[in-house]
Each structure stands twice: as C-alpha cells, then as structure tokens.
Automatic annotation (TrEMBL):
CDD domains: USP-like. This is Nucleotide-binding universal stress protein, UspA family. PANTHER family: STRESS RESPONSE PROTEIN NHAX, UNIVERSAL STRESS PROTEIN UP12. Residues 1-141 form the UspA domain. It comes from Haladaptatus paucihalophilus DX253. It holds the Pfam family Usp. Coiled coil: none annotated. Belongs to the universal stress protein A family.
Length: 161
C-alpha cells in the first residue's frame, strides 16, 4: 500500500513517537522512509540587523541536523532504512512541495490536537499540510494533557476536488 513514507520532524522529544509510528508503518509495508527537517528562517526575520544572520543560520542548520540524527536513532530500532533531508522555507509549504514532487505515498506528522482559540492563535503546520496536500496525511496526536504513553492516530486523507 505504501512505498514511500515521509515524516517531517521538528526535533522535539514529542516527535519521537511520530517517527516510531512512521518507521513501524514503513517496516510493515516494506516502504522507504524519509525524514525531513524544515528550517523556518522567517521565524528569525525580526532579529535586529546587528545580529549575525550567518550565526543564526548556522545554529538553525545544526538544530536541523541534530533533529535528523535523532530521527535516525529512532528508525534504527526498525527494519527500515532512513534517508534524511534538510530543507528551508515555510514548513507547511515545503512539506507539501517535497511530498508531491518526490512521489510520496504518505506523510506522517505529529499534531498537538489543539482546538478553538489555541489553533487560531498558534496555527497548525499539520492542519495546513492536510488542507494543501494531495498526498494522504496521517496525523499522530502528541503532547496532549490527557495523553499518556499511548498515542492515538487519525488518518487524514485530503484530495483535490
């Protein structure tokens, strides 16, 4: 059913269970697993001009490499190979672009499951990906107040009509 699975990571500890879920799916389907980290440089656009952009850029790149290395450690526990990619741009747009251009069958991503005012104020990369992607998206709820070690997963497929 799946030949190529994409799992975006933000480097947070919560993402570990999402990567494990994606690796388990890849193992079960004999699929390729790819992890991406998107450097969102627009987050630091408000820094004063005196700040060294080169220093910030280096820091963001190191953060991304570390997140991808963490993903590699999680994937090693499964019978899958992991390919990693470091991208730059708006995360939701880069995830969708990468998944569609490189022919992925599934995107597996974490979501905090926020609703109401929290979602309005904070936005959701996962929600934007679900809305924009022609590739099916499986969301895995992470970090909720009621969540223990068990993680509930909800498949969200979106297609253009």
């Amino acid at each position: 059913m799946y030949d190529r699975i994409l799992v975006p990571t933000d480097g947070s500890e919560e993402t570990t269970c999402v990567i494990a879920h994606a690796a388990e799916l890849a193992e079960a389907h004999g699929a390729e697993l790819h992890a991406i980290y998107v450097i969102n440089s627009s987050t630091f656009a408000s820094l004063p001009m005196e700040s060294s952009w080169e220093g910030v850029s280096d820091m963001l790149e190191e953060e991304g490499k570390s997140a991808l290395e963490d993903a590699r450690h999680v994937a090693e526990e499964y019978d899958v190979s992991l390919t990693t990619h470091l991208l730059e741009g708006p995360p939701n747009k880069e995830i969708v672009r990468y998944a569609e251009l490189d022919g992925f069958d599934l995107i597996v991503m974490g979501t905090h499951g926020r609703g109401g005012i929290d979602r309005l104020l904070l936005g959701s990369v996962a929600e934007r990906v679900v809305r924009a992607s022609t590739v099916p998206v499986l969301t895995v709820r992470v970090g909720g107040e009621d969540d223990g070690p068990d993680v509930s997963a909800t498949g969200k497929a979106h297609s253009s009509s």
